[in-house]
Write a structure and sequence with these properties.
367 residues, mainly alpha
């Protein structure tokens, strides 16, 4: 028992630090005054944010409210599921008519979903994603940033490595462009696999709901910061390393955005999150997450939690697409690998560093 006390104390200390960092992330996400400041600086940003609210709040959520509060009660009144007192008892004695009413009512509601909600849902996803990119671009411009940000070089820990590595170690010209395209493709593939992982965890008994909420928090936090990192030209491996090394902060940052999944149906949750997401993209754009995390680490004597392999399973699934990955690697990363060969470093696909040894061997053979 005495031997276990140091481990228990260390666990308590790490848990306390993780909780504090989670709270810092939650607080950063809730700094919505940044949205007002940025919208005040940029009229284009204000218009795009208003369009998102109009589409996802007024039209999408408004349609759900009209369906549940007007259309469904009207159908129950026109096509009742029980016999009214003033109707003919001979008609009501025939039970098949009530079943027919129920079937017809359900069919009309499904027609409403097929002809309105599902097309509107797809249209909202496509258009919102276009607008989200515009919102991030206008917000980044309103912050007065035009390139990679830098931090105090005195704090050379993993929290600062994200910005220190921004825009470095990448060839110029066509090779750099192809590497950038390859990173975007691989990032999309990685996050798609991670979304599949999030979906599957929802079916796990007992702990599925909590695990699903945690993974969703990480996913939305990554989405929020990805726009900022793209405009700052931060390499994908640096993003993943920084994200996984500070998992508690990003779990806290993503939590407010995914709170609706705990209280509403999937369609209603999507509507609320589609409204909230651009707001948190802007708070992420205005956030100095690296400095906040570094400040917390300074209080703890630069102690860290270790890297949590959040995207490891998704990266493994993405590795199944090796043929496609090598295809774009041949056009971009092979040239990059040759340039780094003398340094004893071979560039691999921009996933988690060291997580794709098979891809390294493929690249060495190509180089």
């Amino acid at each position: 028992m005495e031997a276990a006390k140091p481990l228990i104390n260390a666990f308590r200390t790490k848990s306390k630090q993780a909780t504090l960092l989670w709270l810092e992330g939650f607080r950063e996400a809730c700094c919505l005054h940044r949205v007002l400041i940025l919208c005040h600086r940029s009229r284009k940003l204000l218009i795009r944010t208003g369009q998102c609210f109009l589409l996802n709040g007024f039209i999408f959520l408004g349609s759900i409210i009209i369906l549940n509060s007007v259309i469904v009660p009207a159908l129950h009144w026109i096509l009742p599921d029980r016999c009214p007192e003033f109707s003919s008892q001979e008609l009501c004695s025939f039970g098949g008519i009530l079943k027919f009413y129920s079937f017809l009512r359900l069919g009309l509601i499904q027609i409403f979903y097929v002809t309105w909600f599902y097309p509107l849902y797809v249209f909202s996803i496509i258009l919102s994603n276009i607008w989200y990119n515009d919102i991030a671009k206008y917000g980044f411009a309103a912050m007065g940033r035009s390139g990679p940000t830098t931090l105090d070089p005195v704090r050379q820990n993993e929290a600062l490595a994200l910005q220190i590595g921004a825009g470095t170690e990448r060839p110029t010209g066509l090779g750099g462009v192809m590497i950038g395209i390859g990173e975007q493709v691989y990032s999309l593939l990685l996050l798609s696999c991670f979304f599949l992982e999030v979906y599957v965890t929802g079916f796990i008994p007992y702990v599925g709901k909590a695990l699903n909420f945690l993974l969703l928090s990480w996913m939305y936090a990554y989405y929020c910061f990805e726009y900022k990192w793209n405009f700052s030209e931060v390499r994908l491996d640096k993003r993943l390393d920084f994200f996984e090394s500070n998992w508690a902060f990003f779990a806290g940052f993503g939590s407010p955005c995914v709170l609706p999944v705990l209280f509403f149906s999937p369609l209603v949750s999507y509507g609320f999150m589609a409204i909230l997401f651009p707001l948190f993209v802007l708070t992420a754009t205005g956030s100095e997450a690296e400095q906040v995390i570094s400040s917390q680490r300074t209080k703890w004597g630069d102690a860290g939690f270790g890297r949590l392999p959040i995207f490891n399973a998704a990266d493994t699934l993405s590795g199944l697409e090796l043929r496609y990955d090598v295809c774009w690697t041949r056009t971009g990363h092979v040239q990059y690998a040759k340039e780094k060969k003398d340094e004893g470093f071979v560039s691999v696909s921009p996933g988690i560093p060291g997580a794709a040894s098979e891809k390294e061997r493929q690249l060495r053979s190509l180089a």
